[in-house]
Amino acid sequence: MIDWERIQTVLLDMDGTLLDLHYDTYFWLTHLPARYAETRGVEPEQASREIHETIQSLKGSLEWYCLDFWSNRLGMNVSQLKHEVGDRIRFRADAPAFLRALKASHCRTVIVTNAHRGGLDLKRERTGLDQWVDAIHTTHSFGRPKEDPAFWPALHASEPFDPATTVLIDDNHTALSAAETFGVRHLLSIHQPDSQRDPLPEGRWPALERFETLLPITPPQPV
């Protein structure tokens, strides 16, 4: 799926790509509505409806991913609530082995995530994923999500990479499309970001089921 001899930089999404999206799905659709219902004294169905409507209205925006926004909107400390179910945070199958292989390779490995800093820090604490990569960038530092085409030149200014020798692996098809517009040549999606939900509909890019299919990572041949 990838000619590693031609790759210099690997950009990796976090949630749904390296980490099982089940944690986030459970938090936003089950845990948060339940805690909101308890705090506000409303029926669980009403709490779920209010949160779902807000999620749908903001989908794809930076606010959608912003824990500070959600805390203000709901009148709750959402960052703290995410810790309550932190035991559900885990890697997708064989992601650690892939990260170890990248660490030992010739590639620069960079996580590019829409996660808010509070959520990112929690996942770093739980998984130690930061030890396997060269850098982590959250889109909140740039003021635009990955779905916004203007994000990619901003990232490039901070994290120089050659789009022609860069691969992006991401479960977000809109983000992949924006990166493609910028010129990132090698793009892979994820077949099943959430281990407890159905696979994603087929997109325009090859869908990765297991990272082991990308191994071994072959270094460039000496000139």
Automatic annotation (TrEMBL):
Gene Ontology CC entries for this record: cytosol
GO MF annotations in UniProt: 5'-nucleotidase activity; phosphoglycolate phosphatase activity
Enzyme Commission number(s): 3.1.3.5
Class of enzymatic activity (EC top level): hydrolase
Gene Ontology biological process terms, A to Z: DNA repair
Organism superkingdom: Bacteria
Keyword annotations from UniProtKB, A to Z: Hydrolase
Name recorded for this polypeptide: GMP/IMP nucleotidase
Gene source species: Vreelandella halophila
